[in-house]
Amino acid sequence: MSEMTYEPLMVEPAGVPRGRAMVERADWAARAYAKYDVATVNRIVDAAASALAARAQEFARDAVAETGFGVAEHKLLKNVACSTGIVDAYRGQDFVSPEIDEVNKIVAIPRPAGVVLALTPSTNPVATVSFKIILALMTRNAIIISPHPMAKKVCVAAAKAMAEAAVAAGAPDGIIQIVEDPSIPLINALMTDERTDVIVATGGSPVVRSAYRSGNPAIGVGPGNVPVLVDSTADIQKTAARIIESKAFDNSILCTNESVVIAEEAIADKLLLAFAREGAYVLKDEERDAIRSTVFPEGHFNIKMVGKDAVWIAEQAGIKVPAKTRALVAPFELVVPEEPFAHEKLCPVLGFVRVPTAERGIDIARAILRITGAGHSAAIHSANPELIMKFSAAVPVLRVSVNVGNSLGASGIQTNLPPTMTIGTGFAGRSSVGENLQPKHLLNYTRLAYNSDVREVMPTFAGLNPWTAPSGPVPAYPTASNDRNNAQVPAPIHREPISQDVAELRDEIRKLIVEELHALIKN
Amino acid sequence: MTQEQVAAPEFDYGLFSYDSKEQMLDKSKEFWNPGKTQFWIDSGVPLVIDRREEYFIYDMSGKRLIDAHLNGGTYNLGHRNPEVVQAVTMAMQHFDIGNHHFPSLARTALAEALIKTAPAGLSKVIYGSGGGEAIDIALKTARHATQKRKIVSIIKAYHGHTGLAVGTGDDRFSKLFLSDRPEEFPHVPFNDLEAMEDALRGRDVAAVIMETIPATYGFPLPNPGYLEAVKLLCEKYDALYIADEVQTGLMRTGELWGITKHGITPDILVTGKGISGGLYPIAAVLATEKAAGWLNEDGFGHISTFGGAELGCIAALKTLEICSREETRSMVHYIADYVGMRLAEVQATYPDWFIGIRQNGVILGLEFAHPQGAKYVMRHLYENGVWAIFSTLDPRVLQYKPGILLKPEVAEEMLDRTELAIGKAYAEIRNERRSA
Q1: What predicted TM-score, i.e. pTM, was given to this entire model?
Q2: B116–A496 CB contact, under 8 Å
Q3: ipTM, 2 decimals?
Q4: Which portions of this protein are annotated as coiled-coil regions (chain A) (predicted)?
Q5: Is there a contact between A502 and B336 if contact means CB atoms under 8 Å apart?
């Protein structure tokens, strides 16, 4: 019987070759797009952003439905911020035209990376997809998105909407592509493909580390674990409102949501009361222990808790809290690795530690970041510039949100940092980028540099621009060369796609054989 | 002992070996085809293809060539395309050629896939082992359906060398074997609708057979509206329209089947060459229900042991799937656009020499101002690392057929080499003229 079974050889999974085809197509698209002028690029960026923004609500709802976590109204906010919001933030900036520095006799010509491979997370699915697409389009790159499998449906819908709008506005065909069925072998193949020019990885550490191991240039960012210091000079009312609003944002699934509040003893009780007024529930000791073992059974984070709301989480621990509770505050004493509350939580549970002095608070913030989250972000609420400076210098993060919620502060939405969905964690966070990811990270510049000798004069380059607007669809439809004046693009013939992959045929055959065998045995 | 060891042959291929390229060529003449072997030596293209991968072929000497002919599209997907190799290798664990007497797993699967991607109306698939046999099947099918005998083709047509197919083509290949049958196979001038109507008017024609772009004739393009009008004439005079898509199918025009760009649903469509993936010979005839009546009347009417060999079906299934991808279609449009643009630039440099570019997608005929112009260009291309062939039936024209999965950097290199070769061929011809 065994010789009748169809034993396939060890082969690549079916999706891998298709992924390579996407990279090849992107390669062509990138080459074409790299010659576009700034006016056309702006039109394409606007079209893609508007297409996403127009359906921001639908995508927000669908993302929550598909992944089972987060808050639709907060995702709506991020979807808008990461589409038209990003475009508005960079309005007037030009990542396309040559920049002339007459004093130094240098002209810098923007040179796109080429093919950008973007890995996007489940926690922030559509916003990250949109953000990376907009950045790629602004800088004339082609982009291939590999969405997190938990959020693939909504990401595919969002990316396709943006791709259609971009192409309709004149972008090259295939400038935005998305993997519909992501798998580990496929992602590996995309990451290691030599035609992938840069990988922009947002997601868990394994994804980021493998991006760096791929052999291709990569921008990956590490995890967060945000300490928040509140000292006695802080405006407690405002601080409480900001922290709870930020902690509750999208049910705390962002890497920028606050992890542990470090309160100076003098104002700690007052702060807890203010938290309660803002809709947080301060857990009593036994309640805190119940939450600890529910959210971190056996000391490990329970992924069922990701992005769930505070009331639901309390319920799981057998705790009844007011229906409008937005966050659960868990006071604890010692910031050490074996204390689960000192780790990143990805749900609206907020650690709370008292310190005798603000100075001591700095040490505690460092202790939190020793566990995880170095290079990412921290927050401080204080009116004391000296302390703020000391805190920021001592704590190994690359952005400190001051008197603002960290969720939207570190990501530049409520601060004047570059608005981003990808927080560079720098050397401390094992990343090549320390800033918030922004358009310039997807660009190089060719610098033409004149002889510095004053006798060698640089002529004027003003008005010289190597880029042009395309004269029609890119690429042109391949009309016969003797019929070009009369060109009519036929409607593509839409018939059932072939799904008859060899793999499927194999399954069919296997089924047939099994049926045959059954028949034989019965007879 | 070491001193006595016989030196290993330089070219060892396992089952056979050669001491040198010269020895190989001598044996080729002795045991295989002296005429053909000598022809290429005399043409300055002493190519014996050894290693091959992607769009590169390597002569025994190690010389690398970019393949811009692809054996008429056989290597559409490149040489030894890894996906097709994998599919066939895998299939060999279970399948062989199969048995033509019985319903077959792979034949049925491929037939379904072909019909799903074909112009609407085509509903049955009949297999051959190669393009010529498939053409014969198509002609026999048309004769059965119409109960008429005549087949109209164009002058300088080329549809293969088998019994019936050879009759549709140029005399050169039929008279040699006393196989010309002008009374059954009238030939009419290409792009001449009046002549076509004259040939059909007697209502005694079973079918008109047309390559969507005649390859061996140097890809003269059908005038806008010509094929559409021929199809209408076929309908008017009860003849079938057979689309020979052997060289124009499988995305080469930027659509899976070139004929769909004309909005024509043929009664019969023939595919070959590229459908094999370049790995296992297979060809297929797609027919409408009406045309394919003999399959009901006598299903054993055409028998072919190797026709639709199951390993070939696997190669074809994979090939068809690759060709049908959205990404592939997009790439063909990019390649066509880029190659066309670069060649137009070369043409602007040599307007008196490089006088025409016939292009539909990645099917190109390059016209030169000399009766044998393409032979000169072919030789200089060869010297400069590109393989493309002159058109047998119009040697002014070079057949230039880049791959549908060509990478941008290879496309650039191919055009750089082509530009140089066209210039060198021009210089050679000018020198000949000067010294004449």
Answers
A1: 0.90
A2: yes
A3: 0.90
A4: none
A5: no
